[in-house]
TrEMBL record:
Keywords: Elongation factor, GTP-binding, Nucleotide-binding, Protein biosynthesis
Role this protein plays: Catalyzes the GTP-dependent ribosomal translocation step during translation elongation. During this step, the ribosome changes from the pre-translocational (PRE) to the post-translocational (POST) state as the newly formed A-site-bound peptidyl-tRNA and P-site-bound deacylated tRNA move to the P and E sites, respectively. Catalyzes the coordinated movement of the two tRNA molecules, the mRNA and conformational changes in the ribosome.
The protein's name: Elongation factor G
Stretches assigned to the Tr-type G domain: 2-257
Pfam families cross-referenced by the UniProt entry: EF-G_D2, EFG_C, EFG_III, EFG_IV, GTP_EFTU
Cited PROSITE patterns: G_TR_2, SIGMA54_INTERACT_1
Cited SUPFAM superfamilies: EF-G C-terminal domain-like (SSF54980), P-loop containing nucleoside triphosphate hydrolases (SSF52540), Ribosomal protein S5 domain 2-like (SSF54211), Translation proteins (SSF50447)
Molecular function (Gene Ontology), one example: GTP binding
Lineage: superkingdom: Bacteria
InterPro entries named among the record's database cross-references: EF-G-like_DII, EFG_II, EFG_III, EFG_III/V, EFG_IV, EFG_V, EFG_V-like, P-loop_NTPase
Amino acid sequence: MGEIRTFVLLGQSGAGKTALAQAMLELAGENIKRPPEGPTQAARVHHLTWQKIPYFFLDTPGDDNFLGETRLAAWAADFAVLVVDATSPVKVQLEKAYAAAQEEGLPLLVFVNKLDQEKARLEDALCDLQEKLEICPVPVAYPLGEEETLRGIIDLLKLKVYIPEGRKVRVENLPEELKALAEGLRKNMVEFAAEGEDELLEKYLEEGELTPEEIMRGLKGGILSGKIAPVVVGSVARFIGVARLLDAVAELGPSPEARGPRLAEGEGTVEVSPSAEGPAVLAVFKTLVDPYAGRLSFARVLSGKISREGELYNPLRETTEKYAHLSLAQGEELREVAEAGPGALVVLPKLSETRTGDTLVSPGLNLRIPPPELPSPVLTYALHPESRADEDKIGPALAKLLEEDPTLRVSRDEETRELLLSGLGQIHLEKSVEKLRERYGVRARMSLPKIPYRETIKKPAQGVIYRHKKQTGGRGQFAEVHFHVFPLPRGQGFEFVETLTGMNVPRNFVPAVEKGVREAMEKGPLAGYPVVDVKVQFYDGKSHEVDSSDMAFKIAAFHCFKKAMEQCQPVLLEPVMELEVEVPEKYMGEVIGDLNARRGRVLGMEPRGKVQVVKAQVPLAEVQRYALDLNSLTGGRGTFRMRFSHYEEVPGPLAQKIIESARAEKAAA
C-alpha cells in the first residue's frame, strides 16, 4: 500500500503542465489520445506505473478562471509538482496555484521547464520561487548546457549525466570539466538534506558527508516538513529531465502512508489512516455529467479497499449509493478495474445523490472529510435564451453544469426576472455558455444584469384626494380616499396607517385600500421602478352603500397614490455595494483612485498579513465588471468581496439618463 504516489501538477498557464503529463505517460509506455490544443479548463486524471510503483496524478488549469478545479485537485493529492516556466517570472496564476497547495499542506517538488528556450534562466527562476513564494528550492538536478545547447541534465545525487535519446535515456559519466560545478551543487543539496533530521545533521557536521540513502532520507524529511522543495530541471518538449522527475517522484514524493492520516468530522474530529484494512473512505473531488455514461463521480480513496461493485454511504446526503462499475481515468478514457485501495483516484458511475466535495464511506460509518473552501463568484451576467426551445432546455442544462462546476451560481432576480449566471471571471462564464451550446444544444447570450433601481419621495403631500366613480347601468362603482403621504428614512420600506374617524368609510374596505397602494408602488412615476421608503396615512374618504366595493376602493387608492407621488418630488435610488478589496501595498494608490472615479467612498484601510485592505462603498452600476477591472489594475493580484449595503439617491444628471433610457426601453417593448 505504501508504494503508491498521488500528486497534482500545478503552475501558471503556458508552463507546460499538460505537455509534461503527456511526456510522463509516453515514457511510462501509456499510449493515450492527446488532449485538445489550448489552455486546460478542467482537471484531468491520469495514472501510470514507474519503477513498479503506481502513480495517480492530476493535470490542472493554470488560469484562475478555473481555480475551483485546481483547489479540488489539490484536495485529492498527497503532494504537488510545481511546474515553472524558466522563460517567465512567477506570475499571479502560479501564486494562486501554490496557495491551493498551501491550503492543503501539500509537500512540493519543482520541475523547471523550457530551459532549452531563449532567455531561459534557471537561477532567476529559483530566486523568483524563493522571493515570491517563499519556498526553499533545492536542485537535485542541473542542466547540461543552456538554451539551444541544452542536451541533458546532471543528476546531483549520483553525479551522472542523463541524455535523452528519443524516448529513452543514455547515462554517462560526468565530464571532468563539470565535476567542480556538480560537486559544489551537490554539497548544497547535502547540506539541506542534513537539516532534514537532527541525527543526519550531527553526522554531517562530524564527517562532512552523507550516504546516498541518508541524503534521500534527509530530503524526504525536508519535503514533508515543508522546509524544502527539491528541483528537477529540463525541457518537456525535448524529453530532457522528464525521466529524472519520474524518478524523483518515486524517491522523494511521499506515499499516502508517509503523508499521514486525514482529519475527518464525525463524532468530534476523527483521523482517517490510509490503511487498506480499514473501512472505506473516499473523497469526491470531481463530477462529470457525460451525455452517454451519465453522472461520473471521481473520488480519492483515502482508506480501505473497494471492489468493482458494492454500496457506499454518503453521510451528508444521508443516502446509500450503489455502484456496479469501478474505473480508473486516463484522460477521457475509463479503464475498469477489479479493486482499488488508498491513494487511488477512481471513477464511480451513476451515483444519484453524490456531489463534488462529498465523502463516501462504508455503510455504518458516519464521518466527513471537510472539502476545500472554493473561491466565490466575482462576476455575474444575465442569460437570455435565444428561442422558446432554448428557454425550455436551459434550466436542466444549467443544473448539469452546476453539478460539474461548484464555483458557478445560478439565480433568478425576483424583480427583473432575469436569469443570472455567476462565476470566477469572464472566461469562466463564456466557456460555461459555450458548454451549454455545444453539449446541450442551448443557445443563450450574455449581458450585464439590469440594475434594481428604486424610486422614493423627498417631500410630503398632504390632503391628496381621489374619487373613483363609474356608472354603466346597474350597480356602479364608487370610492373616495384621502391620503397624507410622507417620506420615510432610507431602508424603512413602507408603512400604511389608517386613522379614519366616523363612518364615512366602512372599515372592511381598509385592506383593499392598502392593497391598491401596494400595487401602485410596484411601478413608480419616473421610470417604472418599485417605490420604497414611504408612509401613507389613510385618514378619510367617502363611500356609497350600494356602489362601494373592495375593487372600487382598491382602484381609488391606486390612483390616489399615483397622484400623490407627482406632488412629492420623486427621485431615483440606486443600490450601493460594500467592497472589501485586498491588494499588495504597491497598488493601493491606483485602486483608491479607481474607486473614487467610480463615485465610491473609501471608508478606511488596514493591513492584513502581506496585503492592504481597502473598505469602500460604491454604486452597483459602477462595479458590475469590477472583477475584470481590478484584475487589470493589479496584474491579477487583487481580490475583493462585495455585498449589498443600502440605497442612495442617484445624482440628478445621471438619474435623468437612466430615466430616459428606461422610458425608451418601455416604449420600444
